[in-house]
């Protein structure tokens, strides 16, 4: 009898270890998949001219799904399940970070690649966590960042703030801004009311020197709402003359400047 009790307890423990339903990717499967997706997105960002059409991006994403033998339906179902089990999702992201860091240690970087990284021609400047949960009960119902200039900054830099929304039932007010050393500022603001991938791009004035780039995502949450902000990045690239004209859709203002310029 004691033997059967032990076997029963062992079976219960094994069932408890399988913390995801059959149609949901396990934590290890989800982490490996998302790690490859993040790496794939980095490839796209670093080679925009080669991936300038959606069909190329979709083909890259599909190749990742084929590699992991998963379907879009499985991935969507897994995202929904993990979105409802945030503690498990956080554990997945810890695994993703470990996978990417391990891959980076195993990659041999050539001299040319090292020069590219140091020069900062394209880099992810996001300073915080890649995931954020906004709830009506949280003391801060917003996501924000602020980074000051450093030696890698250049006049005319472009900042693309990208993220993925899940369970968004409200209209989110999203702003990104830049302060210049002459006391002037520029910003771009949009409203977002749908789930999925979104991006907001800031084009710095090439005739001015930026001192700070910052932004905020504000959500007017109802009492029951929980908005998941995932895969957050802030990709900085150098001035592109072909897209520079887009910056004229931005709003500008000045503050802290007296009439005598002091």
Helix and strand topology:
Elements: H1 2-17, H2 27-46, H3 54-67, H4 72-84, H5 86-106, H6 111-119, E1 122-124, E2 132-135, E3 142-148, E4 158-166, E5 172-180, E6 184-192, E7 196-203, E8 210-219, E9 226-237, E10 251-254
Antiparallel strand pairs: 1-9, 2-9, 3-8, 4-7, 4-9, 5-6, 5-8, 6-10
Helix pairs in contact: 2-3, 2-5
Please tell me about this protein's structure:
This protein starts with a helix and ends in an 8-residue tail after the last strand. The chain is globular and about 60 Å long. It is built from six helices and ten strands, in the order ααααααββββββββββ. Residues 1-18, 107-120 and 256-262 have low confidence and may be disordered. The longest helix is centred in the middle third of the chain and has 21 residues, at 86-106. The protein is of the alpha+beta class and 262 residues long. 35% of the residues lie in helices and 29% in strands. It has two domains: 20-107, no CATH class; 122-262, Mitogen Ypm (Jelly Rolls).
Q: Can you summarize this structure?
A:
This protein has 262 residues and is of the alpha+beta class.
């Amino acid at each position: 009898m004691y033997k059967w009790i032990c076997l029963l307890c062992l079976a219960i423990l094994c069932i408890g270890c399988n913390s995801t339903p059959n149609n949901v990717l396990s934590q290890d499967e989800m982490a490996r998949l998302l790690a490859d997706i993040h790496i794939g997105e980095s490839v796209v960002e670093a080679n925009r001219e080669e991936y300038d059409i959606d069909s190329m991006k979709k083909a890259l994403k599909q190749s990742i799904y084929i590699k992991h033998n998963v379907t879009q339906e499985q991935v969507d179902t897994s995202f929904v399940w993990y979105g409802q089990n945030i503690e498990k999702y956080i554990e997945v992201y810890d695994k993703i970070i470990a996978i990417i860091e391990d891959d980076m240690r195993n990659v041999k970087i050539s001299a040319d690649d090292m020069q590219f990284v140091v020069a900062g021609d394209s880099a992810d400047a996001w300073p915080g966590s890649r995931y954020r949960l906004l709830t009506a009960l949280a003391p801060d119902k917003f996501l924000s960042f602020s980074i000051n200039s450093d030696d890698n900054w250049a006049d005319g830099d472009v900042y693309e703030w990208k993220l993925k929304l899940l369970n968004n039932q409200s209209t989110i007010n999203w702003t990104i801004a830049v302060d210049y050393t002459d006391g002037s500022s520029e910003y771009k603001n949009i409203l977002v009311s749908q789930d999925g991938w979104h991006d907001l791009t800031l084009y710095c004035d090439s005739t001015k020197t930026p001192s700070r780039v910052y932004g905020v995502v504000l959500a007017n949450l109802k009492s029951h709402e929980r908005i998941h902000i995932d895969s957050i990045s802030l990709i900085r690239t150098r001035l592109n003359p072909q897209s520079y004209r887009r910056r004229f859709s931005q709003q500008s203002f000045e503050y802290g400047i007296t009439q005598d310029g002091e």
